[in-house]
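Minimal example, chain plus magnesium ion.
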Amino acid sequence: MAIERTFSIVKPDAVANNKIGTVVATLEAGGLKILAQKMIRMTEAQAKEFYAVHKERPFYGDLVKFMTEGPCVVQVLEGDNAIARNREIMGATNPAEAAEGTIRKLVGTNIERNACHGSDAADTAKVEIGFFFGGAELAALSR
Ligand code: ADP
Ligand code: MG
C-alpha cells in the first residue's frame, strides 16, 4: 500500500462539544498520523470556496453557515492508503448510518453537523491541503 496524505477537518460542532480529543484519538488509533494541525475560524469566503462543488445543493447555504459558526481544526493526515482509510474511520456522511466506532457515529449529530471532513480522492486531497497549508509549513513538520 502507498503512503498518502489526506486533508481532514474537525468541524465546529465537534470542537464546540469538546470532542477534538476523541476525533484525534480515533484517527490515531485507526493508524493515521497527524502530520499538521491547527485551529482556525473559517471565513465565509473560505467555506464557500471549499464547498463550491456543492453550491447548487439545497444545503449549501446552511453548510457554509455551519462551517463558519465557530473554530474548527484543520489537519493533514498521513498513512497507508490514508484517503480511503480516513473515510472508513469517519463513517458515513449521515451519523445515523455510520458504523459503530466511527467518528461520525461517536460524535456526529446529524447529516449536516457530522463532526469531520475527509478528502474523497487524491486530487481533492492535494487541493484541500494546499487550501489551508503552505508547502514550507508542511516541509518543516515532516517526520
Ligand atoms: P462527505 O463529507 O461525507 O464527503 P458530502 O461531500 O456529500 O459528504 O457533503 C459535504 C458535507 O455537506 C457533509 O459532510 C455534511 O456536513 C453536509 N451535507 C451533506 N449532505 C447533506 C444534507 N442532505 N443535508 C445537510 N447537510 C448535508
Ligand atoms: Mg465530500
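Residues 122-132 form the longest helix (11 residues). The longest strand covers residues 72-80.
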